[in-house]
Amino acid sequence: MVTSIASSLGAGSGIDIKQLVTDLAAASRDPKVTRLSGLVTANQARISAVSQARSDLVGFADSLEQMISDGSLRSKPTVSDESVLSATARAGLQADKFAATIVVNSLARAQSSYSGIVADKTAAIGTGTMTLTVNGVAKTITVGATNNSLEGLATAINASGAGVTASIIADQGGSRLILKGATGADNAFTLTADGGADPGLNGFATNGGLSVGQAAANAEFTLDGVAFSRASNTIDDVVPGMSLTLKKAAPGQPVDLGANRPLDMIKQTVGDFVDVYNQLKKSLQAASKLSGVTTGLRDLETQLQGLVNKVLTSHGSISKLSDIGISTAKDGTLSLDKTKLDAVLASDAGAVEGLFNPLRDGTHNETTDPGIAGMLDAIRDKAIASDGVIGRVEKSLSDKNKSLADQLSKVEEREAAYKARLEKQYSALDVKLNAFKATQAYLEQQIKMWTKSDD
User: Fold this and answer.
1) For 103-121, what is each residue's pLDDT tens digit?
2) What is the pTM of this model?
3) Distance (Å, whole) CA 239 – CA 218
4) DSSP sequence for 57-98
5) Angle, CA 340 vertex, CA 337 and CA 344 arms, to 5°
């Protein structure tokens, strides 16, 4: 009967060779595996700490950026009659810098034209070329054998890229061609049949059977008595930080525009900023205190700590977080002097808002007035980049983790091979011992026989 080496160890010698091999193999393997496992555990702790620091930094920057982009910290426009117009805030609007009166005299309109001819949309209308002209730009519209129909003409107009939309609507007795351009007087259009075109195309031309249903026109309005004309009913370039949407014409009816500042939200956000910063500080400190490459995170701690005294806006006296009552304690955490914050808000709330919602105009931009979100975003993006502080630490720790896993795998392979060698060696030894015992028994038997014969 064939048995395994391991199960037969010790069968002949009487020595527990199986246990002996197990103990010898463990004595070789366990210290090495324990050491490497400890290194893996320590490295995993570093990875977790750095991952938490990354998460806190990204979450901090993203949440602040989101609050600013969705307008939570921005002055809100007010409109006295929203049936005439509505207003939304954009970056740069500040309540104490704007109040005005607007009168909407007329809305911007798009030209619409329709064909006098009602026909089967798939029936032939004639072939040739037509010219569609919008604001001095001419496009050639070709009607050939493959698109000789009302439907084909509409498709060709839509494919021209002229900014005019062609539609076919059902009418009594057939279909009618409808053309519509973009709003604004400059977007008026003409469609003419070129020389040599079949006479049928004239029925769909401006100089033939195409009639103007509505003329193109600009929006006409006044702002504090100053007249403006715009091609669209959405106005983004008149009031800094505000987008206006004109809804109806109301000549002679003044509409007051203003803005309200979310003071309570700004105060809450300043306090939240301090709290979240301190949480981030703790996670960075926890990671950087660990031995190894995580000590490089101290550079990031230094950058964040410098935020308090960074110039965030171009305001003459309130341009830094330290100007509104935020200061750094000895342990690197931040604290907020609420009394100072209240006093600054009372004296110049616009400057405080500007730290979060910086002005954007001809002289105020991302360089002159980055704001706290812009500055924090820059630190975040630099830190988590592949060559940034966190990026480099994460790569180093990941490489270390892989190296330790490879080492542990190789140790297990070598120790398994070592145990197999021990089993083979001690199996052979056991066989020899068994043979020696057999020889000893034979000799003892012979000696006894000799001894009896001598008697």
Assistant:
1) 999 999 999 999 998 989 9
2) 0.62
3) 18
4) HHHHHHHHHHHHHTTTTSPEEEES-TTTEEEEE-TT--GGG-
5) 140
